[in-house]
Each structure stands twice: as C-alpha cells, then as structure tokens.
Amino acid sequence: MNTVCPDIVIDSAKYNHSLYSETTSEEQIIYMESGRQFYSKLIEFEGFYLHSSAVAMGERAYLFSGPCGTGKSTHTRLWQQLFGEAAQVFNDDKPALRRREGRWYAYGTPWCGKDGINQNKKVPLAGICFLKQADHNSIRRLSPQEAIQKILSQTFHKIKSAERLDKMLTLLDQIVREIPVYELENRPETDAAKLSYETMRRGAEECGL
Amino acid sequence: MKLKKDLVLREVAGSWVVLPTGEATVDFNGMLSLNDSGALLWRTLENGADKQGLIDALLAEYEVEASLAEADVSAFLDKLANAGCLED
C-alpha cells in the first residue's frame, strides 16, 4: 500500500487568533493563518510567496506587486482586456515562487484573494513589476538593492528562525540576480498595460526566460 | 556601544542588508541597507567597539581624512540609532 506523506501539514490548532482584531472573521483568520504556516514551511522547499497578482502569457508568468491598493488586480485585468484569453490571471493575492533546477516558477495556490481567482498551475517566471500610482506611465528596471527592498516588503521579512532567514536571503539573492524586476508608475489605463507587457516581454527575452 | 541581539547582516545580490531574527523581529521594522563601509563598521561593532574603534577601522581600510572618517562614523551611528539597532 502506498502512503502519501505530505511535505507540509497545516495545523489548525496552531492558528494564532490573538494576532487579529475582533472584527476579523473566522474565515479570514483561517485564510491568513493557514497561509502563514504553509509559506513559512515553503522556505525550506526553496520557495516563498510574493503578495502580487500573477498573469501568464503562454509559458511566461509576470507578477505585479505592491502594497494593498496600488492596483495590482486592476493592472492584470487590463492585460486581460488587452490580450483576452491569452492572458490568464492564475493567482490574485499570494502566488508561490519556487526555484527548481535552476529556474524560477510561479504557482497558483489556494491563497488567491477574495475574488477566488485561482488556477492550479505552474508557469516559468519571466518578470516582477512593482506598481506605483502616478499621473503618467513610465517603467524602469530596479537596481538589485531596490529590488531586494521591494520584494522583502511584499513577503515575510520578520522571520524568527535564523536558519530560515538565511534560507530566505539566499532565495532573495538568487531571484534578484536571475529575474528582471521593474517599477511601473502608471495610470489605470490600457496604455500602462501595453507598456508593462512590451517592456517585460523584451526583458524576459533578453534574459533567456 | 552594542548592537541589539539577533540582527543579521548579510550580503544579498551585491549589497548589504540587515534584518531581524528571533526576538528582534518584535520591535525591528523593515530592513536596513548598508554600503561597503557601513558593513565594515557593522562588523567592527559586532565584535565590540567604541566610536574611536570604528573610526580606526575606517582609516585602516580606506584612504580618507580622519575628519571625514569621524563624520561618516557619526552618520552611521545616527542611522543605526534611528533604526533601533543599538542597545540602550
């Protein structure tokens, strides 16, 4: 008989309710706590989450990241408007990123946001873009230092275990060296989506991603 | 002068960052970026040093005027104090 042994087990008995205000629903607590446990463990499997909206164009995944309210979902919806079925949003909150055999992949996960936009798929990562609201559209490549700071701000950066922190920093070092990271100042309009797509597609091609 | 416990300095993609671990995760927010001389000063401080010790470390490594080294060390210590890296 074959017994499947899961790599990561989520223990609801360990959900820490005290971290949340009284107005937080039980459902939200379960969502946040289960995610916390999963993603903490994932670091040991060469992976971490990025608070972002993930869109796949064929075999390339592009992640749009930033704090809540910067327009991540709005931007990927603009890609869908522009490209139709060719643009598939496969996670709208916390896709997982994992480095396997020297390549980075983005994964759909159950932690996909309140609209439940989610596909169980694994797509090679081609680029990450941080969004900033502005009255114009312009995009630039971030320096490694800027990229590190931005990525950390949208994933775990308070890691209690020194060993896990070290592992996380190794992953961060790798991703910043291997994946182009941008900042897009933008208005919520299709021109911004055209600009991000053209720039990131070119960047991916140049990097062989 | 002492650094708070559980602050980790590491090189990531060619630049130096300081992040909290263990107990330091409670109070320390965000991440600190250091350049090469900042990282040198941090490492010197990790081994225990006073202000003069830090100035000496800079002078040993870089060809710089003593007054500039002193100014750099003061700025560095201010940065660390503001970020909550130093023991009271």
Structure report:
The complex is a heterodimer of chains A (209) and B (88). Chain A is of the alpha+beta class and 209 residues long. In chain A, 35% of the residues lie in helices and 25% in strands. Chain A has 5 helices and 9 strands. The N and C termini of chain A lie far apart (41 Å). The mean pLDDT of chain A is 94. Chain B is 50% helix and 17% strand. Chain B has a 3-stranded antiparallel β-sheet. The relative contact order of chain B is 0.21. Classes of the chains: A alpha+beta (209), B alpha+beta (88).
Describe the secondary-structure layout:
The complex is a heterodimer of chains A (209) and B (88).
Chain A (H helix, E strand, L loop, with lengths): L25 H17 L4 E3 L2 E6 L2 E6 L6 H12 L3 E5 L4 E5 L2 E5 L14 E12 L4 E4 L2 H10 L8 H17 L2 E6 L3 H17 L3
Parallel strand pairs in A: 3-7, 7-9
Antiparallel strand pairs in A: 1-5, 2-3, 2-4, 5-6, 6-7, 8-9
Helix pairs in contact in A: 2-5, 3-4
Chain B lengths: L6 E6 L2 E6 L3 H4 L4 E3 L1 H11 L4 H11 L4 H18 L5
Antiparallel strand pairs in B: 1-2, 2-3
Helix pairs in contact in B: 2-3, 3-4
